[in-house]
Specification:
This protein has one helix spanning 146-149, and strands spanning 2-8, 16-21, 34-40, 46-55, 62-71, 85-91, 96-102, 117-123, 128-133, 152-154, 159-161, 165-170, 176-182, 187-189, 192-193, 202-206. The protein has 210 residues and is mainly β. The protein starts with a strand and ends with a strand.
């Protein structure tokens, strides 16, 4: 049961919230802070929190939790929505600081729609991650269609690939130090084609010591 809704109809992209949790069963050292950090990047969404009643179990008591609500609405058309959030459970302090959505383009420079996502994540120690997820199935037949275009470009990171999923990490000096991709045949980084074994559904590369 949810009550006492507090809603922001137009939150700024990249807003975040943190939850602190009680270690009721004593799994950790006393006083160890445990939490959950959420950074929301969903475009054109309503955000808010509500109080949610819960029970611990049989005869274990009850209480209320702050519940996160993210919602998209449309009065004119059927919605096809991709909710984009960075969710980090942490002990002590969170490692993520900020995040943002980056554009994805077809080889002919046409922007892909909102059902595809490139998420840039800034870590507290200065490293930066990029996650790309493409909607290959495209049940609503949105254009441009990744299944037909077969490739995408992310200009901020100088990346080009046909991967359905990709993760890249830069170090504090801005050098790409690690990369993983799935359902792909090629990836180009800074104009250089990285070698990739044939017939692999998943591929991982890490920079060796200079």
């Amino acid at each position: 049961e949810m009550s006492n809704f507090r809603i922001d109809p137009r939150p700024e992209p990249g807003w975040h919230g943190e939850w602190q949790f009680a270690d009721r069963h004593g799994y950790l050292e006393p006083g160890t802070p445990v939490g959950l950090r959420v950074i929301d990047l969903t475009p054109n969404a309503i955000a808010g929190i509500a109080d949610t009643w819960f029970a611990y179990g049989f005869d274990q008591g009850q209480g209320e939790l702050s519940t996160l609500l993210i919602q998209r609405r449309s009065d004119t058309e059927t919605l096809a929505s991709l909710f984009v959030d960075i969710i980090e459970p942490f002990r002590g302090r969170a490692e993520t600081s900020t995040g943002r959505l980056l554009p994805l383009l077809t080889p002919d420079q046409t922007p892909y729609g909102d059902m595809h996502a490139a998420v840039e994540i800034h870590l507290a120690d200065g490293r930066v991650d990029l996650l790309v997820a493409m909607d290959r199935e495209n049940p609503q037949k949105h254009e441009p269609n990744f299944h037909r275009k077969a490739r995408w470009i992310q200009s901020d990171w100088q990346l080009e690939s046909d991967a359905e999923w990709l993760w890249v990490r830069k170090d504090r000096q801005g050098r790409i130090i690690a990369l993983a991709l799935a359902a792909a045949t090629s990836v180009r980084v800074d104009g250089i084609d990285l070698p990739q074994p044939d017939n692999q559904d998943f591929y991982e590369w890490r920079r060796t010591a200079d």
